[in-house]
Write a structure and sequence with these properties.
The complex is a heterodimer.
Chain A lengths: L1 H16 L4 E10 L14 H4 L13 E2 L3 E2 L3 E6 L11 E5 L4 E2 L2 E5 L4 E5 L5 E5 L9 E3 L6 E3 L5 E6 L7 E7 L4 E3 L5 E7 L2 E9 L3 E9 L4 E3 L2 E4 L4
Parallel strand pairs in A: 1-18, 1-19, 5-8, 7-13
Antiparallel strand pairs in A: 1-15, 2-3, 4-14, 4-16, 5-6, 8-11, 9-10, 9-12, 12-13, 16-17
Chain B lengths: L5 H14 L7 E4 L2 E4 H11 L1 H4 L38 H10 L14 H11 L5 H4 L16 H13 L3 H4 L38 H10 L15 H14 L6 H7 L2 H12 L10
The chains are: A mainly beta, B mainly alpha.
């Protein structure tokens, strides 16, 4: 009975503590011709408009060279246990009447903070389906707004005063996630051997999943190609 | 009467059980009344389900014809609360909404129901969302005693209205025609207009100065109206309440009378009354 207990406790400790040395890497790209991103007219908010030498483009589809697709959230949706919550808060900054980063990824129950670096008030209105909806005003110079979410979800966030401001809070179940930048590349390291389901999510082009198996310390390549939409 | 076949009977029984609500039975406590789910259920299916739907999700038979959609009890996000934004309302908040109705929407005042019936309805409504099992109602925000109305307070309230940028949605005269007003959408992405103070209408969530205090301090969840409780101190909030009453130029109030007795106030009120029809359809 003691032996069984010892073996059980060893097994349960090892499944969450061993980081693993395999990895999944790849690239997110699009095929076809994306719609031309429309420019944002910020003239109703001169304190923000003047921060842009030329007007900003809408960020629902951001592309890079060689058909790279930016702002794709790639994460492991099955095959890893949920991770413990990181202690440091994730930060969303409102600057130039824009959310930086455009997509903020953090874990379930991890604190996140929202700061306002503009000279105008913003109201922060996340619109979850599976978490609490709230709406708070944040004038310039106000302290950061802090909160956290209990369930994994992609939550659109907007400012009602400035209707072009759109972002996403990507609440993740575990720590294995990455967001593609201008080259479209992503890497998910520290994976022990196992069967994984990876999901790639783009706010306009939808979601795709692929299955991957890691057997040792190799880097498996997985690429996601999204169909561009004409409008 | 046609006798149901066994399969039809089983399906009907399952359907009825499923429609009975997703959460365990609830109680409500409002004043001297205690409400019970099983007493509220027949009331709901007599009075409420036509708009609010069999599943309580706001998709009743009448819903496609309504401009402002009926409340979705499954999502459990409520406009009219005494509790902070993002938290559940108290039982009394829900009973008040039923009794008062929501003005300028299709939710009528159910003052014809007794207090016990409203308490039973609140208990039943709370079974539509599992949130009522996992979360407690928020702590009502503290509303300090209202200070006496005076001109300095109204003038401070006017500065707050400008500094907090209320005018960006509500407009400088509070007509709901600010620069951001036309682009506002609610949490279902349907267009929504900010409150038009000039119309003199009652507020969606009440009529008194206390109600107005709670409206902007707790925010109107599900709409673009945010909560100001972290941004305004209580005395600032009361100054804003008194100033907002002066924007309701068609409604007699002590604040308006005091404001009109000054040269500045009299000019502003005269201009507001003269300006003609407000923009938009007038739906608040």
């Amino acid at each position: 009975m003691l032996v069984a207990f010892a073996v059980f406790s060893m097994l349960s400790i090892s499944s969450s503590a061993r980081p693993g040395s395999g990895a999944i890497g790849g690239r997110a790209s699009f095929e076809g011709t994306p719609a031309k991103a429309h420019t944002i007219d910020m003239s109703m908010e001169p304190s923000c408009a003047k921060q842009y030498a030329k007007p900003m483009s809408a960020e629902n589809v951001v592309t890079g060279p060689d058909n790279a697709l930016e702002n794709v959230v790639v994460y492991i949706s099955a095959g890893v246990p949920d991770d413990s919550t990181p202690p440091q808060p994730a930060m969303l900054t409102q600057k130039g009447c824009r959310y930086a980063p455009h997509i903020l990824a953090f874990q379930v129950n991890q604190d996140f903070q929202i700061v306002n670096e503009d000279q105008t008030s913003h109201n922060i209105h996340p619109l979850p389906s599976n978490n609490r909806e709230w709406n708070k005003m944040q004038p310039p110079g106000a302290p950061p707004i802090e909160d956290k979410y209990a369930r994994a979800e992609f939550i659109p966030v907007k400012c009602n005063i400035h209707p072009w401001m759109k972002g996403t809070l990507a609440v993740m179940k575990n720590s294995h996630y990455a967001i593609t930048a201008g080259d479209g590349d992503f890497k998910l390291p520290n994976l022990p051997p196992g069967n994984y389901t990876i999901t790639a999510w783009h706010e306009s082009y939808g979601e795709q999943t692929q299955e991957v198996t890691i057997t040792g310390s190799e880097v498996k390549t997985v690429n996601f190609v999204f169909k561009a939409k004409a409008y | 009467m046609r006798v149901l076949k066994l399969t039809e009977f089983v399906l009907l029984a399952v359907g009825l059980l499923a429609a009975a609500g997703s959460a365990a039975a609830q109680e409500s406590h409002i004043g001297r009344w205690t409400g019970h789910t099983d007493a509220g259920k027949p009331l709901y299916f007599r009075y409420c389900w036509g708009c609010h739907g069999v599943r309580g999700d706001g998709n009743g038979e009448n819903a496609p014809y309504l401009n402002i959609m009926p409340r979705n009890f499954v999502a459990a996000t409520f406009k009219c609360r005494s509790t902070p934004t993002g938290t559940l309302p108290t039982d009394e908040d829900l009973a008040n909404s039923i009794q008062r109705g929501l003005v300028n929407s299709n939710m009528p005042s159910w003052s014809a129901l007794t207090g016990q019936q409203r308490a039973d309805l609140v208990a039943f409504i709370k079974t539509f969302s599992p949130r009522w099992n996992s979360d407690k109602a928020g702590d009502p925000i503290h509303v300090p005693a209202e200070p006496a109305v005076n001109l300095e307070g109204i003038k401070r309230g006017k500065e707050i209205f400008t500094k907090q940028e209320c005018w960006k949605c509500h407009g400088t005269e509070g007509r709901g025609d600010g620069p951001s007003a036309a682009s506002l959408t609610d949490n279902s992405n349907l267009p929504i207009r900010p409150f038009d103070f000039e119309s003199g209408s009652r507020f969606k969530c009440g009529t008194s100065n206390d109600d107005l205090y709670k409206i902007f301090m707790t925010g109107v969840d599900g709409t673009p109206m945010p909560s100001f409780v972290d941004v305004l101190k209580p005395n600032e909030a009361w100054d804003l309440v008194h100033y907002l009453r002066t924007l309701q130029v068609k409604r007699k109030s002590p604040e308006l009378r005091l404001w009109e007795s000054t040269k500045e106030g009299a000019e502003i009120v005269r201009a507001a009354k003269f300006a003609g029809t407000p923009t938009g359809s007038g739906v608040n």
